[in-house]
Amino acid sequence: MFFDPETWVAVAFVILMIVFGYLGIFNKAMAALDHRAARIKAELDDATRLREEAAKVLAGYKARSATAEREAADIIANAKSEAERIGAEAKAKMEDFVARRTKTAESKIALAEAQALADVRAAAAEAAVQAASTILSQSVKGHVADDLLAKGINEVRQKLN
Predict the structure, then answer these.
(1) Cβ–Cβ < 8 Å for 41, 48
(2) What is the pLDDT of residue 139?
(3) Nearest-angstrom CA–CA distance, 10 and 13
(4) DSSP 40-90
(5) What is the mean pLDDT for each group of 10 consecutive residues in the chain (161 residues)?
(6) pTM value > 0.90
(7) How far apart are CA 55 and CA 81, in angstroms?
(8) How far is the CA of 54 from the CAs of 48, 60, 68, in angstroms?
(9) Which one-letter DSSP state was computed for residue 3?
């Protein structure tokens, strides 16, 4: 049994453990592990706190984003309604403008027709007076003819104008 290498390894292990116990290596190792565990726990707590803060910031940004989207939708809706209102006003103004221009054009046309009719009547009266004057001067002679001619011309002018 003393010649087996396993026995000597076991004896050396036991002696090493006794030396470690006497020198306080176990306490130092345990203190180092406890210190490392405390540091890891602090880092985990810090990471948890940072994650919670990040979640709060994310929620704030999401709320701001939703508010901004609502405001943008309101602005777009207002712009569309304003554009429709302006379009309706422009259409009404255009229709009013066209109606006024049409009325003005119709009155100018009516005035031109009346003027043309008056010009035609005046020309017809002149032609009738000339014709009557020529016919009467050829058929009637003398002082009576001059009186009849003047009287007839005046009557024709009054009736035609």
Answers:
(1) no
(2) 67
(3) 5
(4) HHHHHHHHHHHHHHHHHHHHHHHHHHHHHHHHHHHHHHHHHHHHHHHHHHH
(5) 83 91 86 94 96 96 95 95 94 94 93 90 80 70 69 74 61
(6) no
(7) 39
(8) 10, 10, 21
(9) T
Least Cα distance to 129 among 151, 112, 105, 107 occurs for 151
Token readout for 53 is 């803060």
Q: Give the model's pLDDT for residue 129.
A: 75
CB half-sphere exposure, 147, CA atoms < 13 A:
3
Write down how long the chain is.
161
Amino acid at site 137 = S
In a 10 Å sphere around its CB, with 0-12 CB exposed, 13-18 middle and 19+ buried, how is residue 154 labelled?
Answer: exposed
- Which tokens in the block code for residue 33? 């592990």
